[in-house]
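Meet our chain:
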Amino acid sequence: MMNDSDNLDRVDQRIVAALQINPRAGVAEMGRILGEHDRSVARRLQRLIATEAVHATAEYDALRCGLGNVVQVRLKARGDCLEDVAGGLAKRTDVLNVAAVSGGGGLLWCEVLAPSRPLLHSLMAGGIPGLPDADMLDAHIVLRHFKTEAQWHAPVLTEEEERRLRASVVQPLPSLADRCELTPTDERVAKSLIGNARISLTDLARELGFSTATAGRRVAALLERRMLHLRTVVAPALVGRPVEARIRLKVHPAGIETVGETLAACPEVRCCAAVTGRHNLLADLCLEHETSLYGFVVDQLGSFPHILELDTEIVTHTYKRGPVLNGAPQ
């Protein structure tokens, strides 16, 4: 298993970036676009997957699928219980991401899925159950994603390479409903893709008892309706971005859309969302070094007149990245 402190060579980084843009891209397609031999791409890709440097998965759009509300929770572990609290959170199927941050001893952020209103109320009122050694400091309900982690990729490819990789990606329908009903068949297809987004249509059809054509239509329908997002999970450090940070912004209501859309377009921004609470915009960054973070805060964020307040925390360790691997979150 690779560590977050490791780094990939340039060719590996380009292959990972290609997978981030199109997690289901074929080896021959990647080789042709990246200018690498098929066998070299296959060999490198097999090693990246075997060492768990990358994992091709999928994640539900919780709001669109009616699975509940996503809540960003900031916690403080008591005493020297940080590792126990973080480890307990990482094991939970309703917790999608866990990271320790700077700003004081025992600080953690985690992303929690509250599947019902009663559970959302319980979370907001009493914190995450089963964590006696942690106090909840903040809880932000996600209202809108400007950019998800599934949409971020390492900025190591040319614009033409990115365009060619996107050409075979299933595009969302021009008009989408706010809510879509998940059928039992949708859930079965999604479960397979969450386990391995690169599963072939032939293997998916065999696993689920479909024809290959039906399997292709089922996958396309989930992606077209944006019920499911394909994602290549990788530690940013492996692709030359070792400094991760979370910024909390208090933005004037008139500027939330502008600031959110502008941040989403920045290659340094891994994800960005409008949320409830005193800080109404959250964004995660990944950069080459700390001076880059300083430059981003001063040059990028400093240019927005709508930002009223800013809080920055550096991620010191990540305990869990990405969705669970056993289907729909429970």
